[in-house]
Specification:
8 helices, eight-stranded mixed beta sheet, 11 strands, three-stranded antiparallel beta sheet, single chain, alpha/beta, globular
Length: 244
C-alpha cells in the first residue's frame, strides 16, 4: 500500500511544515504533503515537476521536462503518516499534482493520523473516493479557466462542478491572470449556484512583483462582485521554491 509523492530533492519526499499560503486557511500553520501526477496540464503550473516528466509533451510556458526518478517517490502509506505526525501540526494540507487521483491510498494514509484535520487541494475534475470524503474537513477546489490551456471539456466537468458546489466543505479558488477571466468565474457561479462567500480570486504568478501588480486590479473586482480575494503568501515569504 503506497502513495506516489513529489520530491524536494532526489529521494526526499515533499512533506513539510509551513504556513498555508492561499485560500480560506491562509496564514495557518499546517503540515503539507505534495503528491505526484496530474490529469490536467496548466500552461502556467508552478509545480510542473509533479507531472511534466520526460516524454510528456503537454504544453507549458517553461517547456521544461523533469526526470521522473529525481522528482517522484513512492512511499508506504504508514511511512507518510509517520512523517506527517512527526511535524507536530494539527492540520494537514494535501496538494499536488491532483491528489484525488490517489484517493483510495490517500484515505488509508489519513486514517492513520491522529488529531489532525485535513484539507485537500483539487482541480475539481475527480470525484473524492468514498472512503476519503468523510475524512476531509475542507476541499480547496480550483477549476481551471480557459487561460490554463486545458480543453474546457476536460477541465470543467458539469457533474463534478455541480457536486462540489453542493458540498459545504468545498471552497472555490480561481486563478486569475487578466481582468477578463472574471467573466468565466461569474458564469460558473451562476450556472452552478456557487455561494459567493465560498469563491476566492487569486492572482496568477510565481513572483511577488507580478502577484502584487495583479492584486491591484483584482482586489477591487473582488470587492465589486462580493467575492473573496486571496494572496499567495508563500511566494512573498519564500519565493517559488519546493517544500515551502
Amino acid at each position: 500500500m503506497s502513495l506516489t509523492l513529489a520530491t524536494t530533492t532526489p529521494g526526499e519526499p515533499e512533506i513539510f511544515a509551513s504556513l498555508q499560503g492561499e485560500g480560506a486557511s491562509i496564514g495557518r500553520p499546517c503540515a503539507f504533503v505534495r503528491l505526484s501526477r496530474c490529469n490536467l496540464a496548466c500552461t502556467w503550473c508552478d509545480t510542473a515537476y509533479t507531472w511534466r516528466f520526460e516524454g510528456d509533451n503537454r504544453p507549458h510556458r517553461d517547456d521544461r521536462a523533469f526526470e521522473r526518478k529525481a522528482n517522484q517517490l513512492v512511499l508506504d502509506e504508514a511511512d507518510v503518516a509517520a512523517r506527517i505526525m512527526a511535524l507536530g501540526q494539527d492540520r494537514l494540507v494535501v496538494t499536488g499534482g491532483e491528489p484525488l487521483l490517489q484517493g483510495a491510498a490517500l484515505a488509508r494514509m489519513i486514517a492513520l493520523l491522529h488529531g489532525i484535520s485535513v484539507e485537500v487541494e483539487t482541480n475539481g475534475t475527480v470525484a473524492p473516493h468514498p472512503d476519503l470524503d468523510p475524512l476531509v474537513s475542507q476541499y480547496n477546489v480550483s477549476p481551471k479557466l480557459k487561460h490554463s490551456g486545458n480543453p474546457v471539456d476536460s477541465a470543467l466537468i458539469p457533474e463534478r462542478l455541480a457536486d462540489w458546489a453542493s458540498k459545504p466543505q468545498a471552497w472555490f479558488k480561481f486563478v486569475i491572470a487578466e481582468p477578463e477571466d472574471l467573466a468565466e468565474v461569474l458564469a460558473l457561479q451562476t450556472r452552478y449556484a456557487i455561494p459567493g462567500a465560498r469563491i476566492m480570486l487569486m492572482p496568477e504568478g510565481t513572483g511577488s512583483d507580478v502577484i502584487r501588480a495583479r492584486a491591484r486590479w483584482l482586489a477591487p473586482l473582488a470587492l465589486e462582485h462580493g467575492l473573496r480575494f486571496t494572496d499567495r503568501l508563500h511566494i512573498h515569504l519564500y519565493g517559488d521554491t519546493r517544500g515551502t
